[in-house]
Amino acid sequence: MTALHIADTGLFVAMGQPSNTRFQAVERFAHRNEITFQLPERVYGELTTDETTGSTPPVDAAIEAGWASIAAPLNFSNPIVSRVMDGVQRYIANVDDRPADEVEQADGALAALAAQHLSAGAVNDVYIYTTDVAAGEGAETILDAEGYGDAVTFVDGFRFLEDLISASG
Amino acid sequence: MSRTSKQADGDIVRDFLSVADLLEEPQLAQLYAYLAREDGTTVQDVMTDLELAQGTAYTYVNRLVDAGVVEITRDEQPRRYAAREIDLTVSTADGEYTITPALVDAVGRRETDGDIDTYIDRHGIAGLATALTYAVARARGETTHRLMARDLDISPLAAEIVLQALRPVVDEHFDVEASGGSLEDVTDEDTTNDA
C-alpha cells in the first residue's frame, strides 16, 4: 500500500515558523511515518509570492528538510485530471453560489493531483490536508464520482494539527 | 469613521459614539468581549482574568457602563456586570458594516494578534468586518481563502492568514460543525509515501 499526502496553503500557514511547536510536531510526524507532503505548484506559488504579509510560511524549510516537495506539473491531457479539476471548480462555485469560471484553479489542483496519481496506479490512498472545507469536501465528492471514494480522505488541517499537539503533549 | 454632529441628541447618538470608542480602543474591546463571554462577572474577576490593575479595571468597566454597552446585573457588593448586545450599522467612507459582539471581540484581539493588527492597519475596521463574514462562511464550507482573495483583491496568502487569525472568534461566536478527517484517519492506514 502506498499513500500520497497532498498539502494545501492553509496547512503551512497554520504550522507557524520552524520554532513553533506545531511546525515541529508536523516535522516529527512526517519523519516518523516517512511522509513527504506534496504541494501542487499553485499552492507553492501562493506560499512564496506575497512578501508583504510579514512572515513567510516555512515551506522552503520543509522542502530542504525533505518532508515536503513541489509536485510534478498536472497533466491536463489526461482526461480524468481535467475532468476532476473542472468538477471541483463547479462544486465550489455551487456551494459559494457563483459562476464556476470565477473559482481559482488552485482549489481544484489538490483533487486533480490526486486523480493524476490514482489513475496512474501509482498510489492506493490519497490524503488531502486543507483548511478550506469546501475544497476538501469538493475533492472527496468529485473523486468519489470517479470511483475513488474509498481511496481519498480530506483531512481538516486545523484538527490535524490540534490532534498532533495533544498527542505529543 | 464618521462622527455624528453635535446638535444630534439622544440614545442612538450616545450608543454610536460609545461603540465607535470600543473599536478604537482595543483594551475596551477586549474587556467588552470578556464580559460578553462570562455572564455576570465582578471587577475582581476582570482584574484576575485580564491581568489589569484595580484602578484600570474600575475605570474601564465604568466607561463601558457609562457608554451603555455594559449593564450592572447585581447592585450589591460585589457588583456584577454583563455585556449588552450590540448590533449597530455604521457608515464609513469604505462602506457600511455592522458592529456585533464578534467584531468587537476580533478588534480586541489586535492587542495580542499581530496578524489582526496588520489587517486592520491595511483595511480598516470595515475591512476586518468583511473578513469576519468570509471567516464564518469558510468555516462552514461555503467559500475558500482563494475566493476571498479574488473578491477583495488581496493575495491568497494574506486571505489565509487573516482567516486563520479570525478562527478563534468564529469558534467563540458562531455554530460551526466539524468536518473532514483528522489525525486518526491518517494513522489508521499504512502511510508509507513513495509518490
What does this structure look like?
The complex is a heterodimer of chains A (169) and B (195). Chain A has helices at residues 9-15, 21-32, 41-49, 59-64, 79-96, 105-119, 133-148, 157-168, and strands at 3-7, 37-39, 68-70, 125-130, 152-156. Chain A is an alpha/beta fold and 169 residues long. Chain A has one domain: 3-Layer(aba) Sandwich (Rossmann fold). In chain A, helix 5 packs antiparallel against helix 6. The longest helix of chain A has 18 residues, at 79-96. Chain A is globular. The two termini of chain A are 30 Å apart. The model of chain A has no long low-confidence stretch (mean pLDDT 93). Chain B is mainly alpha-helical. Chain B folds into 2 domains: 11-83, Winged helix-like DNA-binding domain superfamily/Winged helix DNA-binding domain (Arc Repressor Mutant, subunit A); 88-173, no CATH class. Chain B is 58% helix and 10% strand. Chain B contains 9 helices and 4 strands. In chain B, the strands form 2 sheets. Chain B has a two-stranded antiparallel ribbon with strand order 1-2. In chain B, strand 3 (88-92) and strand 4 form a beta hairpin. In chain B, helix 5 (101-108) runs antiparallel to helix 6 (114-139), helix 5 (101-108) crosses helix 8 and helix 7 packs across helix 8 (156-173). The model of chain B is unreliable at 1-10 and 189-195 (pLDDT under 50).
